[in-house]
Amino acid sequence: xxxxxxxxxxxxxxxxLAALSGCTALQLGYNNADSLIHWRAGRYFGxxxxxKADFERRVQRFLGWHRKTELPHYATLANGLGDRLAHGIAxxxxxxxxxxFQTLLRQTxxxxxxxxxxxxxxxxxxxxxxxxxxxxxxxxxxxxxxxLADAPGxxxxxxxxxxxxxxxxxxxxxxxxxxxxxxxYSASAPLDDVLRDQDRKxxxxxxVGTIKAKEAHRRLVPWAIAWDQNRDPAYETLRKExxxxxFSMLLDLDKTLSTEQRNRAVQRLRGFAGDFNxxxxxxxxxx
Length: 287
What we know:
82% of the residues lie in helices and 0% in strands. By secondary structure, the protein is mainly alpha-helical. The protein is globular and about 55 Å long.
C-alpha cells in the first residue's frame, strides 16, 4: 500500500495494508496493528483523555470490520495471484491484480474515513498545528529518500536499487540479465517523483483545509475514496506511462524466472492467503 498517502488517521490505518503485502510475520503484525495506529496517532495529534478513548474505540471498530469483511478478499486475491504466477503471467493478470487491490483500498479508505470525520472535526488548533508540522517533516523525509534534489541520473540509479531490492524480496537473487532488464526499465520509464511529491502536498492541503473548516464529517468520505481523481494531468500522464513500462518489465522478467524463483514468490503469496484465513478464523473463534 502507498506511503504517499500518509498524514491522517485513515492513512495511518493503511499501515494494515502495508503489513499485508510486506510483513514476514503477517499475523503478528496485524494483531498488533492497533498499537502501531495509536503510536502514529500520538505523533500526529497527541490525543489525550476522552479524545484518546474515543479514538481507541474507533480503531477497534474499524479493525474488527477489516478483519471480518476485507481479509477474506485479500486471501482470495493472494491465492488468485499465486495461481496466475504459477502458470506464467499475462498483461491481463497484472491489470486484474492492480485493479483488485485498488478496489480493496478504496473500500478500506471509505470505512476508515467514516470513522474519522467527527474525530478530525474536534481537533484543537494546537493539534492541527502539530499535524501540519508532522506532515512537513514527512515531506522532507520523502524528498530525501527519493533524492528529489539529485540529478535525474542519480534518481534513476536509486530507482534501480529500490526495484532490485523489492524484486529480490519476492524472487530471491536476480540474475545479471534480470538486473539489466530492471536497469532498462529505469532508463526508459519517465521520472514522476517530483510530480508525485507535488501530488502528495496537494492532498495534504486539501485535507488540512477540510480539517480547519470543521468539514471532515461531511467531506472526508467522498474525498478519501476519490483521492486520486484530482491529479495534475501531467502527473497522471507520467504515472500511467510509468505503470505501463513497469508492467512490461514484469512480463519480461516472468519469462526468465527459474523454477526456484517462481516457486518462492508463489509460496509467499499462498502463505499470505493462509495467514489471512487464519486471522479471520481466529476472529470467528473469539465470538
